[in-house]
Amino acid sequence: MDSRNSKDEESSVPFVADEYATRDDRPGIPQLFTSMPALNEAASYLAETTSIFTRCFTAVPAQPASGDSGGQELVTFASGETRGFVANNDVSSSGSISSISESFHTEVDAPAVHGELTRSAAGEHSQNSNMLVRSNNTNQNGISIFQGLIERVRRTVRGSADDIGWLQRAAEMPPVEDGTERFMEILDDIRHGLHKLPNTMVYLLVPGLFSNHGPLYFTNTKTSFSKMGLTCHIAKIHSEASVDKNAKEIKDYIEEIYWGSGKRVLLLGHSKGGVDSAAALSMYWNELKDKVAGLALAQSPYGGSPIASDILREGQLGDYVNIRKLMEILICKVIKGDMQALEDLTYERRKDFLRKYHLPEELPIVSFHTEASISPAVLATLSRVAHAEMPMFPPLSAGQIATLPVVMPLGAAMAACAQLLQIRYGEKSDGLVTCRDAEVPGSVVVRPKRKLDHAWMVYSSMNDDPSEADASQVCEALLALLVEVGDKKKREIANEDE
């Protein structure tokens, strides 16, 4: 009978151990992802998590029956770890019978000593206690890791759904006014040769992120303004720097222009340039209130950007492939910028900043946002974004430096991003900034029906439609509307004083 029980015991326990060994080895995963270390790491982590989570259920100790002390056994897995598990009834029974038989023969062959029995019982009890503690620790660690994985999945799937449009939901924010109709009237007049911008002001254009690498940024607009006899400047700031740093530089620009010309300044900022300009007026309004006539923000992520937030949000599945590290390399090493420039456009940073700094109520503000087209035809759109200088070859250039247009599919990239935001969040956007996040509280909002992506003001498209207004005309119309908003605010303030 002892031999039969021993055989059963030998045939049952290794079977369970082999099962766990096979599961713990995770065959095939390292070979499948050897060429991609990031995926290999993520796959190994998921396989280990699944293995541990499975053991959480198989390692829970069962309550032994009355008088049964052989319900717990130790199993050595292929990973080298020793864990407790609940044996089946046959193994427990055979183990109990075998141990009783062995104990019986021991008692017959030699008389038991009370002290030895006590020490033996204490040792077994201590061993069982340690085994249960290790089993419980394994359970807790497995559950903790699995819960952490579930939380990462939840944060990744949820993304920025709770943050988009938070400015409209904030009770303390002032409402906006729709100025689209008046803007279209002004734009139509401009296209027919009727220009209304006064030459009693200086116009400062503030470019957005990566403008240092786009030499055509606002150049057509500045040329157009100069032909009309208007003084226009493009702020030469390091656009990849933080919002606080650029705010200080813009403040210095405004003061230099004002003291040099004696004229007040109208600002128009595009994308991050609008955020930087608004920050300058919010932080330094006491020094600038007599020098600034108004602010226009075009396609600016004033409330934050879902693209920046989704890339940099911590605790996501993207942490396994080091997305943040890749962005740091791109911005800091390749572009020679500051990672904080992108961080300042996340919802978390924008909320913190706007709680601390507010745009003054007396400041005239116009905000402008658009929706990118996501039609299949746009995916084939190419855009001229810069000119590269070619080396001089005497037979060809005759001593002059030749230039070659640099063509990139920016329109297609913006359309793809806009479609992604539409599918994931159900939000209309220009490809980078959602329409709701571009509306500045207390401003006059322009919502044109024309489909324009975020990079439209940056590049000159190879497929420009002559029947539509170009970027310089849109900028002129926005500033003309801003002048009217400023005059209206002056009258309102005068009436309140009376």
List keywords for this structure.
498 residues, alpha/beta, three-stranded antiparallel sheet, 18 helices, 52% helix, 12% strand, AB_hydrolase_fold, Alpha/beta-hydrolase superfamily protein
Number of helices, where a helix is a run of at least 4 consecutive DSSP H or I residues:
18
Coarse morphology: globular
Radius of gyration: 35 Å
Sheet having the most strands: 7 strands, parallel
Protein name: Alpha/beta-hydrolase superfamily protein
Description:
- 52% of the residues lie in helices and 12% in strands.
- By secondary structure, it is α/β, with parallel strands linked by helices.
- The strands form 3 sheets. A 7-stranded parallel beta sheet has the order 3-11-8-7-6-4-5, with helices on both faces. Strands 10-9-12 form a 3-stranded antiparallel beta sheet, with no helix packed on it. A two-stranded antiparallel ribbon has the order 1-2.
- Helix 1 packs across helix 4 (89-109), helix 8 (219-227) crosses helix 18 (471-497) and helix 9 (243-261) crosses helix 10 (272-283).
- The protein is globular and about 85 Å long.
Task: Write a concise synopsis of the structure shown.
The chain has 498 residues and is of the alpha/beta class.
Summarize the topology.
Blueprint: H1 2-25, H2 29-32, H3 37-58, E1 72-76, E2 82-86, H4 89-109, H5 114-158, H6 166-169, E3 177-178, H7 180-191, E4 201-206, H8 219-227, E5 231-234, H9 243-261, E6 264-270, H10 272-283, H11 285-288, E7 292-298, H12 306-312, H13 323-334, H14 339-343, H15 347-356, E8 365-368, E9 383-390, H16 394-397, E10 402-408, H17 410-425, E11 444-446, E12 460-461, H18 471-497
Parallel strand pairs: 3-11, 4-5, 4-6, 6-7, 7-8, 8-11
Antiparallel strand pairs: 1-2, 9-10, 9-12
